[in-house]
Amino acid sequence: MRPPGRRGVPTxxxxxxxxxxxxxxLGAPRGxxxxxxxxxxxxxxxxxxxxxxxxxxxxxxxxxxxxSLELRKPDGTLVSFTADFKKDVKIFRALILGExxxxxxxxxxxxxxxxxxxxxxxxxEAMAKLRQKNPRAVRQAEEVRGLEHLHMDIAVNFSQGxxxxxxxxxxxxxxxxxxxxxxxxVRFWLEQGVDSSVFEALPEASEPLRCGQxxxxxxxxxxxxxxxxxxxxxxxxxxHSRDRPAPYKCxxxxxxxxxxxxxxVPQKQLCLWDEEP
Length: 277
Description:
The chain has 277 residues and is mainly beta. The protein is built from 4 helices and 16 strands. Strand 15 (221-239) and strand 16 form a beta hairpin.
């Protein structure tokens, strides 16, 4: 443990639109006019799957061709997601509050790195232009995408992580010893020219029990961690107009998606939240 360091629709939704439609109403929004390449930020109030409300921050950097999302869960856990379109990499990070009465440190950090498919989220250029009319409105995803269960069997070498994505060294700094990925994603990145020194196979547990089934806190086990992206722009919407010969971008469709990650830990003490068998 370490301390923290589609196609077309006739009209666009009124709450969240692409920037060109809102500039005449609102003037230049935050992140615009700060110079070329300055990341644009959007803050949105979102409803979590359990019904509670939190604030989510979304940033887009069109020069780096990347998007990042960050939100704090009610239990204090800070979840972030980074999409690196240039390197076909997405990074999930969780900063989990420790349970001091169980002897844990103040925070535990985890990073999960998987292949990014470009149809999972809107492009960074479109995200940078996204603004909202009503900042106090609570957003709820229009589409709930299916749970994705991932078996993370490879460790990422933090010192070489910049070869995979320049964002990894910054995003996963607190999780330097707890960065996980999958063999199938590694094969793809190796074909793209990423050096094999970035990756290292994780040991196989002799008895691959879930940590929730292990009584001894010092025994190795398979840890499971789940997280959810409560609200993110997953698709662009298109409008039609008599004045324009072709459909034009006029808004977004929002999605919610949950993930569970299974990964080897050398001792159950590193996975005390996994109490279910």
